[in-house]
Amino acid sequence: MIEYWDKPLKVGKTDVYYARVSEKWRETESLTNQSVASTDTNVATVGTTELVGDEIIKIPLTGVSPGLVQIDVDYDTATRSDSAKIFLNVSED
Question: Which residue segments constitute the domains of the chain, with CATH numbers given?
Fold first, then answer.
């Protein structure tokens, strides 16, 4: 899955973004684990992430410098795992 977050992140600011794992993929299972990483920590860094409910991953991000950054999101249920690549634009104020 590849997605783009519409709301840009500002340099020097921290904001919270959310990744939602579709019910179709999860079927009747809940998320049990997640891991989130920025592919370029010179553009954005990832804070402490958490699972919210059965399907949402809360992701705090801090803008470091302007650019387009890829956020890799890995997630698991009790029986399977998958990943997503989400792109985010980091801009000056």
Answer: 2-91 (2.60.40.10)
